[in-house]
Amino acid sequence: MRVTYSLAALAGVTLGRPSPEPRSLAPRAVAYVDSETGFTFAETKAAATLSNNIVYRIAVPANVPANSNYDVVIQVVAPNSLGWVGLAWGGSMIKNPLTVAYPNGQKPTVSSRWATGATYTALTAGNKSNGTHWQYTVKCTGCTTYTGSSGGITRISPTGTTRFGYACASGKVSNPSSTTATIPTHDVYNYVSHDFSAGQNANFAALLLKNGVTDESGSANATQAFE
Ligand code: HEM
Ligand SMILES: *[C@@H]1O[C@H](CO)[C@@H](O)[C@H](O)[C@H]1NC(C)=O
Ligand SMILES: *[C@@H]1O[C@H](CO)[C@@H](O)[C@H](O)[C@H]1NC(C)=O
Ligand SMILES: CC(=O)N[C@H]1CO[C@H](CO)[C@@H](O)[C@@H]1O
């Protein structure tokens, strides 16, 4: 199923009971302070079904100099009904970093799905699962600067609003401990606008250290490319 309804339109559907939360496609800067890792994330919810959201949270360093590369910390919370979720940083499936993840016991697997893609380092906190959701928290190097379809370098603004693509499937990944596992095709894809401004972290490097990230060890690489 492809979700083509706008969330604003869905909010207008009267079901005889109040909607559990306001839904809107308009960009909004919602800050989420994660007590577990200490990062302040800008949070965007993406509809996976009519009643379930994927929560995307992105933390960036404060005061990134113009035209420079920067790492991000991404935290994703997904309902257990989903076998994988993916974020397309450039807003389409091809020629941009795709952050794909699937549940794998207590520690979801995060997988880079673009040939020249990004690398991920797990934080020592913030990845888990319970009876309803699975969650991961990783540092990404290369998610916000990439060579796009035009051949030029695309750099996502660390303070602006950008359009992401996202996708998910209810089908499970059969060997979820592998970063190169074959994933079933998405049954939903759509787009969200993410406003980075609420996720500024003046102490970004110190917080990474606090969460056990000192080097590039644990990086995952792409094997499945969407050229
Ligand atoms: C299992 C491998 C995959 C297959 C076979 C596949 C196939 C497709 C196809 C055929 C379309 C076009 C559908 C249409 O025009 O109605 C599409 C669109 C899309 N896919 Fe995938 N896909 C895969 C993985 C992914 C992943 C990992 C992501 C990560 C976010 C993703 C994100 C998207 C997005 C955002 C679109 C919308 C079109 C665009 O804006 O580029 N796909 N996919
Ligand atoms: C389950 O985990 C998710 C993601 O970490 C969290 O948002 C939710 O509150 C948890 N639910 C319970 C009952 O602990
Ligand atoms: C990831 O890929 C890059 C080149 O695409 C390579 O230089 C690097 O060694 C790879 N890292 C791992 C951990 O495989
Ligand atoms: C391997 C790894 O990073 N595991 C951590 C995932 O996050 C939990 C807390 O949510 C830690 O306890 C694990 O050590």
TrEMBL record:
Residues 32-205 form the Cellobiose dehydrogenase-like cytochrome domain. Pfam families: CDH-cyt (PF16010). It comes from the Eukaryota. Transmembrane segments: none annotated. Gene3D superfamilies: Cellobiose dehydrogenase, cytochrome domain. PANTHER family: CELLOBIOSE DEHYDROGENASE CYTOCHROME DOMAIN-CONTAINING PROTEIN, DEHYDROGENASE, PUTATIVE (AFU_ORTHOLOGUE AFUA_8G05805)-RELATED. This is Cellobiose dehydrogenase-like cytochrome domain-containing protein. It comes from Neocucurbitaria cava.
